[in-house]
Structures are given as structure tokens and as C-alpha cells.
Amino acid sequence: MNRSFFQVSFSVAVLAVLAGCGNKQMTYSTPEQELRAHHARPAELSTAIVEIKAGQGGLAEQRMDTWIKDHAGNPFFAEAYYLRGQAEIVQGKWQEAKISHDIAEDNALTRELKALAMLSRADCNVKLRKVTLGIQQYQQLEMLYRDVTAVSHEEVLFKLGMANKELDCTEAADFYFNKVIEHYATGKYAEQARKLNSKLGHSETDSVTFYALEMATFTDAKQALEQAEIYKQKGYQNVKVVEVREFEAAEYSVRVGKFLNRNAAKRAKEDAELTGLTASIKPGYMNLSK
Fold it and tell me: Which of 7, 34, 194, 227 has its CA 20 to 30 A from that of 164?
């Protein structure tokens, strides 16, 4: 998986927060924060934000690399690393993005930037199949940075539900989905939380009819199709690309196999992992009323 429910935590609102850094009147708790407030905001950072919003991750990453090399110690240093990480996420470079967000978090001068970096770092760990670590980081964020409005508390709760669902921890997943429904009934994630809650689930006419192994996901449909073709050439059966839209952005999931029950899918997953591949089990839903 490369984006889906753990997509870039990088909305227009977040961009506005970053774009306003350094221009907002605030109480300074450290000399570094005061220094940042009296430095002109680098034009390169604003340009990178525009490029990231346009999906031009490569350009933004290169721009931030160049700026970082020439501005060590600058009070906008941590934000530049955060933007580099966001640019890497746009490209599906999750390991590189994790490192960039680690650096951004360690050097952040504000709670807002620290929280944003923590959220994206957790997203990266989940994408890298380090789901337990990602859960721990979401929990830390949810407990310690609930007051930071730049990060959506609703989103963090929803991602905790999704990550626990990924580990088949149904009770824990439902706990977080219920929190989303209870506290954010009309919010951005409430509808998905209702659908994914095991006690609420899909409509009465929807039923799991098979399971498949998700081998990889991409934000680019062409890359997904190319990867699917590789699996076909290797002799895998029932290879297809599924478009997933759980948020605004689309993700393209490369799936292999068609198993009639979860146990069969689990055995296939274990076999795949023995060969060095990573896979997760995904249900296939069919509307039985049609």
C-alpha cells in the first residue's frame, strides 16, 4: 500500500499553516522561534508547496535538497525537511519520506510542525508494513498533541482504526471507529468509519465473496499496471489493479489471487512472505442484490 487511508496528511489547511509560519504573531518560548519569526520566509519553501499540491513531487524534492544543503542552521530547516518528506510521499518513496520526517520532527521549533511530522512519519511506517510501530506513533500523537489544530484528531483516530484493522485487531479497530462516529458524526471520516466498523459494516446487500492479496499500491495508475504485468509474467493468477478511493485521492492496488475464505488467503500470504514478498489480505465485496 502506498497511499489509500494513510495518504499524505497534507491538505490545503496544512499548507496554509506552513505558508503562514514565520509571519504570525506568537509568544516565543525559545530564541530559535524568535529567530524564525524575524527571518524572511524562503521563497523556495512556498514554491515547493505549490509543486507538491500539483503532484510535482520530484521537482519539490530536488528544490528542498538544494535549499537544505545551502542553509544548514536556518530556522526554516525543519520545515524544509518536512516538505521534502511530503514530496517523497507524493512519489511513493516511503522509506525516504520517513527519514525526512524523522529529521523534521527532531528539529521542529513549533508544536504544529512537530505534530505534522509525527503524523506523516506514522503514515510512512504503516506503508512500510511496520504497522505496530505506526499504531504506537498515532497513539502518542493522539495523547500528546490533541490540542494542535493543524493535525485532525478525527483523522488520527480513524487511522488508528485502520491500522488495527490491518493487523486483524477487530476489537481495537472498532473502538477507534466508534470514537470517530461518536465525536465526529458529520466529519470527513465518519462515513468510512461506519462502513469499516465490524458491527456496522457494509450494507445488508453487500457481502465478502472472496479475498485477494494486495502486493503493492501506487498513486500512479501506469506504475500499478506495469507492476501487475510483472506478476502476470511470473505466472501469478487473477492479477488485477483495483482503484481505491477512501479519501479524495486515488490509489491503485495491485492484487493477486482469488481465495474463497480468509484461511486460504492467509496461507497464500505466508507463502508469499517466505519468498521475500510483502502482502496483505484484502476482502472483495459484491452487491448480492444485483
Answer: 227
pTM of the entire structure?
0.64
Measured in whole angstroms, how far is the alpha carbon of residue 109 from the centre of its chain?
Answer: 23
Domains, the chain: 4-151 (1.25.40), 206-287 (3.30.70.1070)
Q: How many residues are there in the chain?
A: 290
Per the CB < 8 A criterion, the answer to whether 84 and 61 are in contact is: yes
- State pLDDT tens for residues 137-153: 999 998 899 889 899 99
Q: Determine the residue type at 233.
A: Q
Q: What are the distances in angstroms from CA 288 to CA 203, 205, 208, 209, 256?
A: 10, 5, 10, 9, 23
β-strand pairing of 280-287 with 206-218: antiparallel
Question: How far apart (Å, rounded) are the C-alpha atoms in residues 149 and 112?
Answer: 8
Q: What is the Cα–Cα distance from 255 to 257, expressed in whole angstroms?
A: 7
Dist. CA 103–CA 167, nearest whole Å = 28
